[in-house]
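Hi V.,

You were right to ask for the full record rather than a summary. Here it is.
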Amino acid sequence: MVMAAAGLLAASIVVFAPLAMAGWHITRNRVLFFSTIFFIILAAAVHILPYAPSLSRLVSSFHSTISSLVLSSSSSPSSNLGCLHSLYAINFFDDSDDEEKIRWAWTRKRSAAISACKFRELHREEALEFLSGTWIVVAGDSQARYFLLSLLELLLEDPAPLRSQLFKFHSDFSHTLEDEHLRVDFFWAPYAANLTSKLLELQHSGNGSGSSARSRSPDVIIAGAGLWHMLHVSDPSDYGASLRDLAAAARSLRAPHLFWLNLPVLVPGLLNTAAKREKMTAPLLSRYDEELGRSNLTLPGGDFRVLDVKEVSSLCGRGCTGDGMHYASAVYGALVQIMLQTLVLIRTSS
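Predicted structure:
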């Protein structure tokens, strides 16, 4: 670098000194002028060409430094992770009374901070490429099953043939996309205690040997339970104890990405049985939410990131539910995209 600078200085002296002389004599001797110009060209070539590689590296280094500064200011790990707090800035809209025609989008009226995050819904090919080689486990109650349906609707060109298999009464489900080496499993686990057993089972299988998918832990786990407990047990303290057991089981896993589907907004007037209307009340729901907060299951004290069904269902409103507890596909579709965007932000920040 020092030699390149010295060479450039010497070349400048050789170039500009004769040029000044040529200007002084131009009106007196044209032959001298053109001779001087020829000399300047030769001298510049002799002095500068040996340092061309170093100068090229100098320019390249400068460009790389500027590029790094621009990238760090626009997509640094801290700014990427900060975008996680803005993922729920979404709107729902529809053109009819049909809840299946409801659509969603990240809000158009964004603050500068949200606009800088540049959230963008992943389409099928992008999602398949991003999730290639991934083992995804979805476990829990009916909310988890609807979440998985929305994920399959994104990943598959025609998920209809699998819908009947997915919604078999209280059944598990598995599907593999061979070309992408992408595996999706669903485990029916309506109680938190069921989820604890399933996580311990997955941990045991992940400690095995062999080349099959079962010889490793899942890469992503999405879990959620509580609706059945509200209806059939109706004991917030018992629910909290089972969540703490689940939190302990999660700590034994080999660090997959863990997501928790919390309870949705319930609309008592739309619940379709007398037992649900009697037991699944707003005060009881509030106590269940409090138990989740005290359980250390979710961040910052636990290992699960919340996929906020309550927030998204609230944004969509009571017009998005027909039975008071399950919501339009747009709600679960939004949650799928929020999960994917979370994984994108985490990956680009690591």
